[in-house]
Amino acid sequence: MHLPILVLNPFVIAGIILGLAALAYLVLALYFTRRFREGPAKAAEGWRPPVSVLKPVHGAQPFLYDCLRTFCDQDWPEYEIIFGAHSETDPAVAVVKRLIAEFPNRNLRLVVDANLVGPNPRASNLANIYKAARYDILIVADADLKVDRNCIASMAAPFANPKVGAVASIYKGLPYGGAAAADFGAMNISDWFAPSVLVDVGLRGIDFVFAMCGVRREALDSFGGFDHLANFFPDDFALGNLTAQKGYEVVLSSYCCDTIVAEKSFSELFRHEILWQRMERFCRPGDHFMSVITWPLPLLLVLLLPWPSIVGLSIIGLEILLRIALHYQVRQSFRMNTPAQPWLVPVRECVCFFAWAFGLFGNKVRWGKNIFTYEAFRKLIADGRNAASMSERRVAATAGDNG
Question: 125 near 85, Cβ under 8 Å?
Fold first, then answer.
């Protein structure tokens, strides 16, 4: 069968434009992922500030003990870990008490406080924990993260620069429990999420943080702290965004943590991925829509295959090949031990696309008993930006008066 070099109609033209944008993105992703090297960050000579680690906990997943324990054995001279729960009957409390007994020489404490300062239970938990924190450098980390002994040293290192207000640690997926869905979910985090962050940071810097971050106390207090963040969902994005609005630098650490992926079924995984996509749309609606170029394969097949041509098939083939190349590059740059599964890459991309498509609809996110709306979240972000602008104008006016 003789294939034409190119067929021109509105669908093919749309497919070619999408395909070229996707190929350009993958080239950038390969470049920035290759340039990134996961590893511990070296602190400046003599920079060893005491650190408070804030760990909100809820429930007792099978991996909870192992994850929390990794934070209790850090290579750092002085640090405290403050765990927080909303109820003494929470199963996580027993796990925390076990760790406190296991590490009597560590400064491990538990705060149990049912107070909710806002609709976000995680940020409310952190607000309660924060009252007990003694130090000015804070590390916030979810309960499903695993780290090595260099975690605190790496997260504290950038704060030697007094301009730094927050430090983000990118995470990679670590499947747990042996379920195929867990492996499939971990691939999404490692192969799609992590490279997209590196491209974003490489092109325009960073004004967000993730499930593990460091924050300077004065930067946190400058916008109202966790009491204010308890009105946001997701609160980690808001922490980085509001820190940047207040004029502090937000930086990406070279240190990476593992996030446990433990979904037991594909239906459970797909529901979670739709939730994550909707959260991304809440945070950055324009970026979320344009992220279609990071998982374009289903659309390329629909737009280009019905009118096969050398150009169209070449775009599809190149997109798959570059995505598989990125699959291997991620494992090298992030020092991953999970085996490569290139044959799953096209299937995983199609599922990513459909989760993204479902995430385009719906303006509410349910988290526990609370519902967060798109409109309310965007208003809070805008209010924080307006407050920062007003503060800057007041400073400028004061400077003018003094002059």
Answer: yes
- Is the pLDDT score of 219 beyond 60? yes
The answer to whether 32 and 58 have CB atoms below 8 angstroms apart is no
What is the per-residue pLDDT for 350? 98
178 backbone φψ class: left, alpha, beta (φ>0; ψ -120 to 50): left
Q: In angstroms, rounded to a whole number, what is the distance separating the alpha carbons of residues 208 and 335?
A: 24
Every domain of the chain and the residues it spans: 10-36+279-365, 51-275
Where residue 400 falls among pLDDT bands split at 50, 70, 90? very low
With CA atoms as reference, report the closest residue to 72 among 131, 141, 167.
141
Residue 53 DSSP code: E
Residue 92 · residue 202 · CB < 8 Å: no
Alpha-carbon distance of 197 to 15, in angstroms, equals 25
Q: What is the DSSP letter of 193?
A: I
Largest CA distance in the chain: 80
CATH fold for the domain made of 51-275 = Spore Coat Polysaccharide Biosynthesis Protein SpsA; Chain A (3.90.550)
Q: How far apart are the first and last CA of the chain?
A: 80
Q: 97 Cβ partners below 8 Å, 6+ apart?
A: 110
Q: Give the helix/strand (H/E) hosting 13.
A: helix 10-35
Q: Which amino acid is at 44?
A: A
Higher pLDDT, 383 or 291: 291
Reference 313, options 16, 33, 24; nearest CA is: 16
What is the average pLDDT across 282-303? Answer: 93
Res 377: pLDDT: 65
